[in-house]
Design goal:
CATH superfamily of the largest domain: Formyl transferase, N-terminal domain
Largest sheet: 7 strands, mixed
Helix content: 25-40%
Order of helices and strands: EHEHEHHEHEHEEH
Number of helices: 7
Low-confidence stretches: none
CATH class of the largest domain: Alpha Beta
Number of strands: 7
Structural class: alpha/beta
Strand content: 15-25%
Shape: globular
Distance between the termini: 32 Å
């Protein structure tokens, strides 16, 4: 009987790693998918502590090597990485890495792209822009990564209302709940080849 090899994920994150923690939890005992590496550009990032607690190898990314060198493609390939998942990673992904993993790098953005994306649009800056624009709804966008910020083909979106009394912090909390609920599921369905309808 043919057994499909386990697909290995590298999670790239710059911050506390709440999305990374949910992804790790989703695949901790998964038959076909494993989080095999944590990569961060910040030595003090909380996501590295999560990785250590889960006995997942980690790597600290050097800016010069990542942006103007080989972008760690050799190390990722040597580790058998199949997919790269961005979970709050703030550096732009270089073309070298995109070419090495075509159609296998995905990101989550805390707004409904193509609105409120692009350089500098992350975290509270996104929610401030949504509120300043008077939007009636926001949500999350999961998309493939290309050579422009927040530009690759959208894989999945889910929406939530923007309330009249919302602040960036209150909106962020609601958006984060959507991220935690849907990102691991979408990753699983994408990698295993199962379709996913918005909101399901």
């Amino acid at each position: 009987m043919y057994i499909c090899p386990v697909k290995k994920i590298a999670v790239f994150a710059s911050g506390n790693g709440s999305n990374a923690a949910k992804i790790i939890e989703q695949f901790r005992h998964h038959a076909a998918i494993k989080v095999s590496l944590i990569a961060s550009n910040k030595p003090e990032a909380g996501v590295l502590k999560i990785g250590r607690a889960e006995n997942i190898p980690s790597i600290i990314l050097d800016k010069e090597k990542f942006l103007r060198g080989n972008a760690y493609t050799a190390e990722l390939i040597q580790s058998g990485i199949d997919w790269i998942v961005l979970a709050g990673f703030l550096w732009k992904i270089p073309a070298t890495l995109i070419r090495a993993f075509p159609g296998r790098i995905i990101n989550i953005h805390p707004a409904l792209l193509p609105k409120h994306g692009g350089k500098g649009m992350y975290g509270s800056f996104v929610h401030e822009a949504v509120l300043a624009a008077g939007e009636k709804e926001s949500g999350i966008s999961i998309h493939f990564v290309d050579e422009q910020y927040d530009h690759g083909k959208t894989i999945f979106q889910v929406r939530c209302p923007v309330r009249e009394n919302d602040t960036p912090a209150s909106l962020a909390k609601r958006i984060q709940q959507l991220e935690h609920e849907y990102y691991p599921k979408v990753i699983e369905r994408l990698i295993t080849g199962k379709s996913m309808v918005n909101g399901e």
